[in-house]
Amino acid sequence: LFFTSLTFLITTGAGLSEKGDPLRLPLIFLLQAGVFLSLTTADFFNLFVAFGLMLNSSYALLALESAPEKRLSAFLYVILNVLGGFLFLSTAALVYGATGNLNMAALKLFFAALGPSPWIVALGLASITIYGLKAGLFPFYFWLPDSYPILPPSLAALFGGVLTKVGIYVLVRMFVTILPPELKALHTLLLALAGLTMLLGVLGAVSKSSVSKILSYHILSQVGYMALGLGLFTVPALAATLYFTVHNIVVKSSLFLIGGEAARARGSDELSSMGFLWGTAPLLGVFFLLQAFSLAGIPPLSGFWGKYLLFSETLASEHYLLLLIAVLTSFLTLFSMIKIWSGAFLGERCGENRPLSANSMGWIAVSISAALLLGLGAEGVWLFAEHAASELFDPAHYVEALLPGGGS
Hints:
Elements: H1 2-15, H2 24-40, H3 44-65, H4 71-99, H5 104-114, H6 118-135, H7 144-147, H8 153-178, H9 184-207, H10 211-232, H11 235-266, H12 277-280, H13 282-296, H14 302-316, H15 320-345, H16 358-376, H17 378-393, H18 396-402
């Protein structure tokens, strides 16, 4: 919640430099309410309401803040997420019809007694579809790379930093806290989807030539890392996913803000129309290098620790092909970051030479500071993530808090 709140603050503050719609701030507050309710609710129907609030706010922001000629991309985002919402509501209705309850602690006890029945497997598959669509997990991710780049930089930073992570968080709660742990086939499916999401996401990033498109595809590859930790289904792997998610919230949002400032300075975010930002905006170049290296996993930045923990657990679990994909994805991530550096910051200036926004640069500096603290204070954050993962795998305290007496 802290880093999510910080990201809302940073992106909203940076957005004050943009000419936004008058309804932008109210819609951001509604979006924030939906995100926070999604993270804290203990009721399945309330989770549906939270997703509805979050998604409807994002639809309105896409419609109001995108250029009219680009709204076809937003239309695809809306249609797919409406279908996901319908599936969510149908699933909630079926769960209530079967159990007579939507309290997550009560569902945990009910499903634990039921065991890995076909009905539970179907619920797990529905969860992967519903929340995988929101998270940008393969094969549900094709709407994302075309939707986020049409937004102003501050909103793209907010969407890219926070919204997909909510989908991952809810998947974690479903598979670890609510569903029984014996669903090995679904865990294997998650691992396969994680590998495909990492690989196809980073290949998409490498193939693009605009900063916003490259960063949007990298949302997908990073979501693959998070799903990898969930699919491994161990306490250390889940702790690594939690740490990596927090890291990615901060780093990804700041990269979108940095990319937005670079595009503002040159009048375009196409790499062929940029160049020489290192000569005219060296501080922006330093900011980009720090976050690009963190995204790629260069030590001692936060991305290195998240990937190191995930790689170690993947190796310990003997998933060698997934480890190879994860390492390859890191190298290709570094390659695509070097591509942005070469095209936007080096070479000759091809575009305009507009001044940077002091307001945006200040908020980017705040985001950079948070990312550096995550890397330098990795041990403390890891201990917190490990404790949280242990609690998720042994939810006795959670059940006791929601159902005094343990539901007896």
